[in-house]
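#structure-requests
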Amino acid sequence: MLRVMFIGTSSARPTVSRNTSALAVQRGADLYLFDCGEGTQRQMMRYGVGFMVREIYLTHMHADHYLGVVGLLRTMSLQDRLEALAIYTPPGGEELLRQAVGLELAELSFPVRIEALVPDASNQHDGYSISAYAVSHPGGANGYVLRESARPGRFYPERALELGVPEGPLFGRLQRGEAVLAEDGRQVEPGDVMGPPRPGRTVVYTGDTRPCDSTVKVAAGCDLLIHEATFSDDEVDRAQRTGHSTARQAGEVAQAAGVHRLVLTHLSARYSERAYVLEREAKRACGGACEVLVAYDGLTIEVPFRDAEEAEP
């Protein structure tokens, strides 16, 4: 399972229908939080996200992206959490975060580790990684990429039987990438009975940023690009000045990267109830090359596998 839950989709300040930035990603049994604006803990309760977060990744140290950390840690402690929690910031942000939560740390029921994650660095997990990359926003900021490892190709049992491999443990060895001996003594390679590797899934979250080539690069062919779209195109100059993107620019990035799905988030309050304006601009810029959605608080997206085209060996 790879599930993305939008907890807060507003920029700068909350509105009646949108909270400040926060995104939960569940991969199997592991839950991650990307950004943690004020009020995030209440949003997590509202949408049933749960508090068993493994790691928190902050894109940058502007208040609407990290102020919710202090309250969230306190709530976790009141629930008697014991598991350690790692929080990652862009370079230079770790000391600010330590100061923000320092008064709480001594009272927490669990250890907290705060570290900077430099661009191009990765945290490796079982079957996937979470990596940072540099985006373009005042004060320095990270975007993040969750990338799964490639999966083995599809196994063709009928082909294995034709080659004289009996059903049973030898099937499992072939699927694990080991060569085996057929009943007549011939060696059968995994490639004889399996299709090509199938791609894992990739989710990219930009955080706040101007449109930039680094996003195009890391998001190339990805399953889901979550790109900020603070403004419509009639405020493109303001977007450039403040380090943000318009919906059109987000659509252009998605088209250049060849992504399969684009979701817009971090909407200025003026578009909170007029999200269709941003959706229309992004769709026009994409030219139908990918699916385009505007996120709302509570939106949940399941990211499916896309199997590689396979021809039977």
